[in-house]
């Protein structure tokens, strides 16, 4: 029971130890696949984590080393290797010891090769050439050198040779769209509506008014105050004429008599 508690404490301590070197290594800037400046992802050389004699080490020491390698593999997002180590940790102590002696480097090499292949996706010519060269070599040291150094050098060359479409696209599209639509719509609609509608209505109203007042050209006869005055004068003249006629007739009849 005491041995198991001791082993658990040592394993927990081992998981914390690799964190400091990994954080320190991730401080160097570089370019990512989108040519954006980021902190470099540095792959750990797990051979540096095997600091014991695997032949004479105790089972607890073997598990501590295995957990350190597992933590480094997960930090580097390596394929294959984390699953292989976890399977051995779940197995017997002898299987884990044998895996650390030989199998771990085989699984690690496969994981590094896959990581190199991943960098070629949508990559430029310089990255493609550097990756192909490393894959032809096939050694662990070549893979680590490429992933930690040569990849960023080749990517910087590819990014430097790329055109800059963002700077040329923005000025050409925005100014051409705004002046061509807004001014043309405002200038074509507002003046035409104002000049054609207003003058056409004003002359027609001014020419029709005199025809209505004089009663000419189909206009209505004038009524109102002037008509009443003329009717009164006419009536007065008619009465005077009638009175004159009667007086004249009487005088004539007297003369005849």
UniProtKB/TrEMBL annotation:
Q: Does the keyword Translocase apply?
A: no
Q: Where are the transmembrane segments?
A: 230-248
Kindly indicate where the leader peptide sits in this chain. 1-26
Q: Which InterPro entries match?
A: DUF312_ALF
From the UniProt entry, list the residue stretches annotated as the region Disordered. 161-227
- Output compositional bias ranges, type Low complexity: 161-210
Please provide the record's keywords in A-Z order: Membrane, Signal, Transmembrane, Transmembrane helix
Is Transmembrane helix given among the entry's keywords? yes
This protein is called LPXTG-motif cell wall-anchored protein
């Amino acid at each position: 029971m005491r041995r198991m508690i001791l082993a658990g404490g040592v394993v927990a301590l081992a998981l914390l130890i690799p964190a400091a070197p990994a954080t320190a290594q991730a401080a160097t800037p570089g370019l990512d696949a989108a040519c954006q400046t980021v902190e470099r992802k540095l792959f750990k050389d797990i051979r540096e984590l095997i600091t014991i004699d695997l032949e004479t080490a105790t089972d607890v020491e073997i598990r501590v080393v295995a957990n350190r390698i597992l933590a480094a593999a997960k930090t580097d997002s390596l394929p294959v290797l984390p699953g292989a180590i976890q399977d051995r940790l779940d197995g017997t102590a002898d299987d884990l010891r044998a895996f650390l002696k030989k199998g771990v480097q085989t699984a690690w090499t496969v994981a590094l090769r896959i990581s190199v292949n991943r960098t070629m996706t949508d990559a430029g010519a310089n990255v493609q050439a550097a990756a192909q060269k490393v894959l032809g070599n096939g050694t662990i040291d070549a893979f680590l050198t490429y992933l930690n150094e040569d990849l960023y050098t080749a990517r910087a060359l590819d990014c430097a040779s790329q055109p800059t479409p963002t700077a040329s696209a923005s000025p050409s599209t925005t100014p051409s769209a705004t002046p061509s639509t807004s001014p043309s719509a405002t200038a074509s609609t507002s003046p035409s509506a104002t000049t054609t509608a207003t003058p056409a209505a004003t002359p027609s109203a001014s020419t029709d008014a005199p025809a209505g007042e004089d009663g000419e050209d189909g206009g209505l006869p004038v009524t109102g105050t002037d008509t009443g005055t003329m009717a009164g004068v006419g009536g007065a003249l008619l009465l005077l004429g009638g009175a004159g006629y009667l007086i004249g007739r009487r005088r004539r009849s007297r003369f005849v008599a």
